[in-house]
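Hey, quick one: can you model this chain's 3D structure?
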Amino acid sequence: KLYLNLEDESKSVVGNCVFDIGQCLTCFYLVFKKTHKAFEALDQTRNCLKTLHFNELYLKCRLTRAGILLYHKKDLYKAKEEADKACNDFSIKKMKDYQAEGLLLKALILKEIFLSSQRSLEVSVEFIEKCFLDSVQRFKEHNQYEARLGKARALMGLCDWRLFTKKLGSSFKEDINEALKIFREKNLRGLEIRALQMLGEYNLEMGNLIEAEKLWNVARNRAKKYKDRKAEQETNDKLEFLFDKIRQKNQNLILVLRAFSLVEIENGEVYEPENICNFFSNFRENLSRVLMKEQKLINIHFDIATENKIKSYLSEGCRVLHISSYSNKRECLVLEKEDSSSLVLNSEEIVQLLGDGLRKHGVDLIVFATPQSFELGQYVFEESLVPNVVCFDYKDYLTSPYLTQVQILIEKTLGKFCDEFYKHLIKGKSLGEAWSIAKDVSDYFALENKVVFEHIPHRKGNYQGKGPVLLGDAKSALFSDEEVGILSSQARLQSGSLFDTSKPKPPTNIKKRENAFVGRKCVMYKAVSALKHRKILHVNGVKGIGKSSLLKRVGYFLNAHN
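Sure thing. Here's the predicted structure for all 562 residues.
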């Protein structure tokens, strides 16, 4: 009675409130996966609206019901029936905005029916595209500001279908860019990320690999900013697939593999490696910064140095193979096992691993970036017939009572050499010229920090030994202007750009730690091993003993190892 005495405008407000509350209740139950309760709330809303003679709002509830059935992918034919009825009713009542929504929902339902393995209804690709196009057209005819979002969603659905069918059409790029613009205006972050992903997929289909990489990196950065872990991981998977394609096309590849295992296992005993600390240097950032400045078509790939990965990458081919590791035994190299423990290989085993196909697969240079790799490098150079080898001879520095500081400085000196060496190598200088310049820079760096070496008998450069050693043709230039530029047109880099094809790291909020971390590797190994078999790890210890630091290191290690 109270309702009947209200004015028409007030009645309209009541009807909209009933509809909105019903929609909220339905969504609330859906969030908690109580589908039957959601349908009950929706039915109560429909009955109430029917009693109060709000026929238009009553019809809108049909779309909600069809949407729920689509969301759960249950009874898709019932969902199609509801959408068809709603579309017909909206057409009769000339409700163009909801008719457009109904057509869009119908197209999405037909798409799911088409994709389902058991379908009794014959649905053609062309008919589904027509439904999407009809929806876009109806939103355009509505010609109101609110309808722009509906149009953007319809364009996105249309483009997604065209990507699936591989029938992109001439208007694809224009359509998805228009949708992307509207999503940004409306601050719809999830839809914005998805539109960027689709734009990247379009460029991938068209062969524009570099543009696809840029768009997916933008999408990943957006997902990181908005803390959308699912979208970030989806984009990472797309980037990994793209990088594999580019790496296979581009032979101008610098492959950088690092092995810093947590423990060594011998006769069932677990103990820390003889290198006391695992200092996380900025070699990757420095090398990327150096190469970004040069106008050469080069790509770079970073990964963990395991036996299987070396075999796999060599079969694909690269120009430079760089292995960073440690070893306190001459003529040996330490790689990582899958469980992050050490795999110690002698010179003969290294040559066998690398195989006699190094030159066949296009490897022109091997760099053994470990302080005592001279004997190993010499043996590999003589036995594997690789044209050029760079190795290092920092002898007997491990006798120092200040081992950690010395090791950090040696790694920094070695990293400084590599930065300068690759910088001048990419510029087109010969191996001998690049090596000579880099050696002078690293010698000067060590001289500036000579206080750490004052207790060590030394020659020039404040270290005992030969330092960086070049074996091979000092006059050859690996990346001269004539040699570089062999990328196919599909993978061509823009002038002055560097392409990092490394596997993207999973989503994380753990930042890199620059300070050394000493004496906790066995505990880290236990934690890493435990987390491979269970989801929860409890660490107990007195205040200030280093629980947080340990777990940050474990988190970073797991993330770096994917």
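One thing worth noting: Residues 8-31 form the longest helix (24 residues).
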